[in-house]
Amino acid sequence: MKTLALFALGVTAMAVLPSCVVEPLPPPPPGRVVTADVGYYSTLPVGYAGPTYYYGNRYYYGGRYDVGRYLYRGRYYDNRYYHRGRYYYGGAYRTPGASVHIRRY
Questions:
Q1: What are the beta bridge partners of residue 41?
Q2: Of 20, 60, 74, 80, whose CB is crowded by the most CB atoms within 10 A?
Q3: Would you list the DSSP string of the chain?
Q4: Are 83 and 60 in contact (CB under 8 A)?
């Protein structure tokens, strides 16, 4: 009798209490690119949301953007971008939602 009462209590609790199953996260919106890789684009894909560095008609991604005062080939630059073992000077850093601004030296 005691076992039957405990069983009934367990069934009642399962019906009343919310489920403990964790729902998976929804997929990212279409058109978004999520990457941790290093590379470049000639033109940005539609909906690309990552930061890029625009230099030499290419959009580089996955590198490191440094802000400071850097002397390169006799000129000073306010920023540089490190990408695959090479520094780029004089380009424009673009974060998601910002427009590209190119400084000419």
A1: 59
A2: 60
A3: -HHHHHHHHHHHHHHHSPP-PPPPPPPPPTT-------EEESSPPTT--S-EEEETTEEEESSEEEEEEEEETTEEEEEEEEETTEEEES-EEE-TT--------
A4: yes
Confidence tier at 86 by pLDDT (50, 70, 90): very high
pTM of the model: 0.56
How far, in Å, CA of 82 to CA of 53, rounded? 10
Distance CA 43, CA 18 (A): 49
* Residue 83 to residues 16, 65, 80, Cα–Cα distance (Å): 57, 9, 10
Question: Looking at residue 55, what is its pLDDT?
Answer: 92
Sign of CA dihedral 101, 41, 57, 43: negative
What's the rounded Cα separation, in Å, for the pair 4 and 2?
Answer: 5
How far, in Å, CA of 100 to CA of 20, rounded?
Answer: 47
